[in-house]
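@channel sequence for tomorrow's demo:
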Amino acid sequence: MADYALAKTGKLKLKGEKEKSKKKKRKHKTQDDDVAAKERQLDILKHGGWKAVDTFIEMTGSVAIEFGNSAYVKALDNGLFTLGAPHDDGDGPSPEEVLTAIKVSETKIALKSGYGKYVGIDKNGVVTGRADAVGSMEQWEPIFQDGKLALLSANGCFVALTDDDSLEANSKVAGPSEIIKIRVQLNDAEESSAAKAARLNEDEGDVSQVELNYVKKFQKFQDKKIKLFSGEKIDLVKAKDEGVFHETMLDRRSKMKADRYCK
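structure tokens (generated this afternoon):
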């Protein structure tokens, strides 16, 4: 498979172009859909109930990053990552291979390891999990194209495995080494849209609610009172649009001198 640059593209629609009739292909399409559905079901069973996502909306909650066949990215206690051993058919990822995906914008996610740290990259493009909050370097953009998926980092490069099975992001194009699968547990993937809408997490709600969620989570509460930054909320709205929302919240919390991660 030749290397290719991933891009968000779509079919051009020319003015006056007539849409071709698809009635004759309906029977073949139904058969193809049935085959594809069976293949997806077999794939889920093979991976212990973990489904490979094919849309951004599915990327929330517990996820695992798969390279190759049934081998997942594994968090280490030193803040680095490696590739775990391949699993047998029917086995899902191990606990240390499970990350938590949190949507931070319409196109980007943050990833948190089982050690409670956010995944980012350093100045050399090495993937690390050592951040206590989501800044610009802890945001990832899943790129889908031609049925394949690659993960774009904050430095504009795609995540890949090195020869020693560590993770880095130093390639501007996505070739075979950068192609991954992100898997979610079947129950999470099949969760109804109504249930998803009802389930709140730290990053859901308006900017005021999200900031309050994080203050409650990290504030030390010496005097049993919640301390919120008194600055304008419009700054948070602007920061969210610019992709530096969590970084701005961290800065606001640090000014209150009441946060266990802000000095």
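heads up for whoever presents: The longest strand covers residues 61-67.
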